[in-house]
């Protein structure tokens, strides 16, 4: 079982990115899933979750700007990020059940 993130990169403030997390060896709908991020020297911040009852969670810092979704046919979890801010700069990790991906860097800078 493996989670592979992609879609990170560098963007100017106000820009958008979409992160993808392809899950191999999982049945997507069987697990809670989500995204966390980490800035060097700081703890892991849980950013967004999508649960088996279809409920969602967003941290206050991203609410209204980020959207979590999944494509069960593609076994992929997405995090659409709009109106990015410099404080969104971090390594983003996807989580599915008890497994974590390797992370993808997002840098927001002018």
Task: List the main descriptive attributes of the protein structure presented here.
about 110 residues, mainly beta, 7-stranded mixed beta sheet
Give a quick account of the main beta sheet: strands, pairing sense, barrel closure.
Answer: 7 strands, mixed
Uncertain regions spanning at least 5 consecutive residues: none
Distance between the termini: 38 Å
Mean pLDDT figure: 95
* Rg on CA atoms, Å: 13 Å
Give the overall form: globular
- Helix tally equals 0
Based on secondary structure, the structural category is mainly beta
User: Considering DSSP H and I runs of 4 or more, what fraction of the residues is helical?
Assistant: under 10%
What is the tally of beta strands?
11
**What is the helix/strand order?**
EEEEEEEEEEE
């Amino acid at each position: 079982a493996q989670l592979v993130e992609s879609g990170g990169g560098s963007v100017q403030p106000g820009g958008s990115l979409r992160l993808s997390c392809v899950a191999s060896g999982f049945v997507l709908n069987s697990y809670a899933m989500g995204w966390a991020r980490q800035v060097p020297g700081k703890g892991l911040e849980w950013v967004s979750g999508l649960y088996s009852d279809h409920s969602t969670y967003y941290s206050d810092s991203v609410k209204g700007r980020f959207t979590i979704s999944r494509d069960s046919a593609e076994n992929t979890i997405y995090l659409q990020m709009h109106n990015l801010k410099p404080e969104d700069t971090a390594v983003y990790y996807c989580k599915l059940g008890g497994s974590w991906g390797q992370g993808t860097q997002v840098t927001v800078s002018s």
